[in-house]
């Protein structure tokens, strides 16, 4: 009986994105008879994609030398590029820079007209972008895309277009930049680029959208990245960052238990193998959830770990100190960070925290200056969420300055915007501030209703510090009457609308970036409140009560 050649099995597994099988079969073939250059490259890519980074480096190095031995300088340079780039992405800049320099010298010596000339310009353009030269970076990425078009190289084209989009956003040309990123994602979604490049582009685009608070795109591309990761056997890179982004989306939409589970899985995933810089992001996200739930000691531990991984602990740690009643420590930390941090994607979050802490310290003028800067940043983005952040901060400053009527108008704008985005915690915080403003105006009934509504949200989320604050502010007024029909929550209405389109629980979970279990719970609660027992009856109710969006 004939046996199947492991080299053939490895190639077939590679084509169907079964990375663990591809690596194991190609490794077996290599032990039997050393692989040729092209198969060594395949084995390196498969190793990288299952997280065996040392094995990937070794296989690429062997492929590099094998290509050189047969006179294929361009392919050898490509291998050196991937060793260098993946080392840099793991934070090993010295080794990575050495391999990139080696690749450059090889091209200088051979001077071939090839796509690899474009690949070696990518790190240079990235350094320009990171160094604040967005205009120079944009020119470089345009040249890279031009080389890619000349050689019809899809991977290089994706790098070029991704960099152009990032550079345009850095220049303040946000709409143009987002359009370029969307175009780049078309090539990724249609499978035109290789898996390593696709993963890099997915993560970079989500971070870019997150930086401009384009939360709709963050949710959409995070769901797409989740599906992409799930379709590949044994995939290790990118999945951890995907889990962190899923956690952030779940937190925004009030699914805090699921958000905590996602980020726990992210930390676990990123620890094997250890060393992924995304670990700092995961730890900070975990700390934020602990802080909001009132688990202060666990939050502090995670903030400290995040710092050890090179991630800033601010503004979260300063807000933790504020919640602990350590106002002087909170103010000192946020002021130092505020002075050290330039205009980066984290600046709006820092400004929002700065406003809250300065108002607690009674520094209204300093808070107003931060609100002014926050407003200028928001003016460059088409982000309802960020506009709500500005309106909330502005309303809080007006309230502190003794202008409750103007504060009510600003806080109401924040309430509406956050409600439309589907951010229950932020909406409830706006209602608490609105209650304070209404009390200043003598409107105690409205204040009581706003506090009761916020109290219910905080209780459902398990937001212990905010819940205690609402309890302390509540008076004897009756509960608020604001609600969707039959007491449906905003999230349940969102699920109902998707049910009415015929979407399955799995499709609803993907669309809203929540778990199947959470969808099932929402559907069960919704059926109970509506008094129905089928999706058809729920759909009929949605149409009868104008709950289906056109």
SSE layout:
Layout: H1 6-15, H2 19-32, H3 37-49, H4 53-69, H5 73-89, H6 93-110, H7 116-119, H8 121-130, H9 134-151, H10 154-170, H11 174-189, H12 195-211, H13 215-230, H14 239-252, H15 256-270, H16 278-293, H17 296-308, H18 316-323, H19 327-340, H20 347-360, H21 364-379, H22 384-400, H23 404-421, H24 424-440, H25 444-461, H26 464-473, H27 490-500, H28 505-512, H29 516-530, H30 535-544
Describe this structure in words.
Among the domains are: 382-482, Serine Threonine Protein Phosphatase 5, Tetratricopeptide repeat (Alpha Horseshoe); 490-544, Arc Repressor Mutant, subunit A. The protein has 30 helices and no strands. The chain has helices at residues 6-15, 19-32, 37-49, 53-69, 73-89, 93-110, 116-119, 121-130, 134-151, 154-170, 174-189, 195-211, 215-230, 239-252, 256-270, 278-293, 296-308, 316-323, 327-340, 347-360, 364-379, 384-400, 404-421, 424-440, 444-461, 464-473, 490-500, 505-512, 516-530, 535-544. Helix 3 (37-49) packs antiparallel against helix 4 (53-69), helix 23 (404-421) runs antiparallel to helix 24 (424-440) and helix 27 packs across helix 29 (516-530). The chain is globular.
Unreliable spans are 476-483
Helix/strand class? mainly alpha
The number of distinct helices, counting runs of at least 4 residues, comes to: 30
From the N-terminal CA to the C-terminal CA, the straight-line distance is 63 Å
Task: Please name the CATH topology of the domain at 382-482.
Answer: Serine Threonine Protein Phosphatase 5, Tetratricopeptide repeat
- The proportion of residues forming helix, as a percent range, comes to over 70%
Share of residues in strands: under 5%
Rg from alpha-carbon coordinates: 26 Å
How many strand segments? 0
Averaged pLDDT: 91
Largest sheet: none
The rough form would be described as: globular
CATH class of the domain at 382-482: Mainly Alpha
Give the name of the CATH architecture of the domain at 382-482. Answer: Alpha Horseshoe
- CATH superfamily name of the domain at 382-482? Tetratricopeptide repeat domain
The helix/strand order is: HHHHHHHHHHHHHHHHHHHHHHHHHHHHHH
């Amino acid at each position: 009986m004939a046996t199947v050649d492991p080299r053939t099995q490895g190639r077939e597994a590679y084509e169907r994105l079964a990375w663990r099988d591809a690596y194991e079969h190609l490794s077996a073939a290599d032990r039997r008879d050393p692989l040729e250059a092209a198969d060594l490259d395949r084995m390196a890519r498969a190793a990288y994609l299952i997280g065996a980074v040392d094995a990937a480096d070794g296989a690429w190095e062997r492929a590099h030398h094998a290509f050189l031995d047969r006179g294929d300088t361009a392919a050898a340079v490509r291998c050196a590029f991937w060793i260098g780039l993946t080392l840099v992405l793991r934070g090993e800049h010295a080794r990575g820079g050495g391999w990139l320099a080696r690749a450059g010298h090889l091209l200088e010596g051979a001077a071939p007209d090839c796509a690899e000339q474009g690949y070696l310009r990518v790190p240079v353009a990235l350094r320009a972008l990171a160094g604040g030269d967005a205009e120079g970076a944009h020119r470089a990425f345009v040249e890279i895309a031009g080389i890619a078009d000349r050689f019809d190289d899809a991977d290089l084209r994706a790098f070029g277009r991704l960099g152009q989009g990032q550079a345009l956003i850095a220049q303040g040309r946000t709409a143009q930049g987002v359009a370029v990123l969307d175009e780049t994602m078309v090539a990724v979604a249609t499978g035109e680029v290789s898996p390593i490049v696709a993963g890099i582009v997915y993560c970079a685009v989500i971070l870019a959208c997150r930086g401009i608070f384009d939360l709709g795109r963050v949710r959409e591309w995070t769901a797409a990245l989740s599906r992409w990761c799930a379709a590949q056997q044994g995939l290790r890179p990118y999945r951890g960052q995907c889990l962190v982004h899923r956690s952030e989306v779940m937190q925004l939409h009030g699914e805090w238990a699921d958000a905590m589970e996602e980020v726990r899985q992210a930390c676990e995933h990123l620890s094997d193998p250890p060393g992924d810089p995304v670990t700092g992001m995961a730890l900070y996200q975990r700390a934020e959830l602990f802080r909001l739930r009132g688990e202060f000691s666990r939050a502090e531990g995670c903030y400290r770990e995040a710092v050890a991984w090179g991630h800033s602990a601010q503004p979260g740690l300063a807000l933790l100190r504020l919640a602990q009643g350590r106002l002087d420590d909170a103010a000192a930390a946020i002021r130092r960070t505020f002075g050290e941090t330039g205009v980066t994607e984290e600046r709006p979050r820092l400004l929002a925290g700065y406003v809250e802490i300065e108002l607690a310290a009674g520094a209204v003028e300093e808070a107003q200056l931060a609100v002014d800067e926050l407003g200028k940043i928001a003016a460059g983005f088409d982000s309802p969420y960020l506009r709500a952040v500005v309106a909330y901060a502005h309303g809080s400053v007006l309230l502190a300055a003794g202008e409750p009527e103007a504060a009510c108008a600003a806080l109401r704008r924040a309430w509406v915007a956050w409600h439309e985005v589907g951010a229950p915690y932020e909406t409830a915080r706006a209602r608490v501030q609105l209650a304070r403003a209404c009390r200043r105006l003598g409107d105690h009934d409205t204040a009581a209703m706003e506090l009761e509504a916020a109290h219910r949200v905080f209780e459902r989320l398990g937001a212990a510090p905010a819940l205690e604050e609402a309890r302390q502010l509540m008076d004897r007024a009756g509960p608020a009457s604001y609600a969707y029909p039959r007491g449906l929550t905003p999230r349940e209405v969102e699920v109902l609308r998707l049910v009415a389109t015929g979407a399955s629980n799995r499709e609803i979970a993907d669309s809203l970036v929540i778990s199947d279990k959470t969808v099932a719970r929402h559907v069960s609660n919704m059926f109970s409140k509506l008094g129905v027992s089928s999706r058809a009856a729920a759909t009929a109710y949605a149409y009868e009560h104008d709950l289906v969006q056109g």
